[in-house]
Specification:
Blueprint lengths: L3 H17 L5 E4 L5 H13 L5 E4 L2 H10 L13 E4 L3 E2 L5 E2 L6 H10 L2 E7 L12 E5 L4 H11 L4 E4 L1 E2 L2 E2 L7 E6 L6 H9 L4 E4 L1 E2 L5 E6 L2 E4 L4
Parallel strand pairs: 1-2, 1-3, 3-6, 6-14
Antiparallel strand pairs: 4-5, 5-13, 7-11, 7-12, 8-11, 9-10, 14-15
Helix pairs in contact: 1-2, 2-3
The structure holds ribulose-5-phosphate.
Ribulose-5-phosphate binds next to helix 4.
Length: about 230
């Protein structure tokens, strides 16, 4: 593969499936360009005769499962043995920013429900503190002006921008809007997430706390498991 970044994503996506997925398991499959490789690898193992099933975090991932031949079952129809997903940022305590692909709400549901949640990233996603990547906030569209006003009142230095795709307001699989909120460095992600979540109209915040059980990261040409601070 000629693109080194894509090669790194492939390496870590394949490694997660090969290290954590055992025959007969139900796998929670994430969304995004890194999770893509975990989906592909799961498909290869199904094609080789393994009985695996998936619970998916988005319509896009469901489509990829169809393409790669991975059987999909509904959320909560069986236990999720392991969930594998990418992230936009990973802090030393494994606090995550997620939602760059807009799938944060279902991703969090599956991360919470799974017995184990494995995060896969390339080393560009590892940060000292969250905040370099704007925090995605999923908002019920009717309440968007209210949520924008509340965020501006509570965080005067933040810049909250409605996500636009192809010239149209972006809508999640749940029919909601995304506000990408640039707060700058986030000293206390727990407090920030709680404040945002308390605003009426906010469905979910793309800050994932205390959910990851392992973080696999590509470094040089290998994969390493991060140690939690
Ligand atoms: C989607 C996500 C993705 O996991 C996150 O955006 C990382 O994506 P990529 O692997 O494409 O960089 O949270 O909602």
């Amino acid at each position: 593969m000629s693109d080194p970044k894509e090669a790194a994503k492939r390496l870590v996506g394949f490694a997660a499936v090969d290290r954590y997925v055992e025959p007969g398991m139900c796998v929670g499959l994430g969304t995004g360009t890194t999770a893509y490789w975990a989906i592909k690898r799961t498909g290869e193992r199904v094609a080789a005769g393994e009985k695996l099933e998936a619970i998916v975090t988005s319509a896009a991932t469901e489509r990829l499962c169809g393409e790669f031949g991975v059987p999909v079952v509904p959320f909560m129809s069986r236990d999720i043995d392991v969930a594998i997903d990418g992230a936009d940022e990973v802090a030393p305590d494994w606090a995550l920013t997620k939602g760059g692909g807009g799938a944060l709400f279902r991703e969090k549901a599956i991360a919470i429900a799974a017995r184990r949640f494995i995060v896969i990233v390339d080393d560009s996603k590892v940060v000292d503190r969250l905040g370099r990547f704007p925090t995605p906030v999923e908002v019920v569209p009717f309440t968007l002006p209210w949520v924008e006003r509340e965020i501006a009142a509570r965080f005067p230095h933040a810049k909250a921008t409605e996500r636009i795709r192809d010239g149209q307001p972006y809508r999640t699989d749940n029919g909601n809007a995304i506000l990408d909120c640039a707060f700058g460095t986030i000293p206390d992600p727990r407090a920030l997430a709680a404040t945002l979540q308390a605003i009426h109209g906010v469905l979910d915040v793309g800050i994932f706390l205390d959910l990851a059980d392992a973080v696999l990261c590509t470094a040089d040409s290998g994969v390493r498991e991060l140690t939690k601070a």
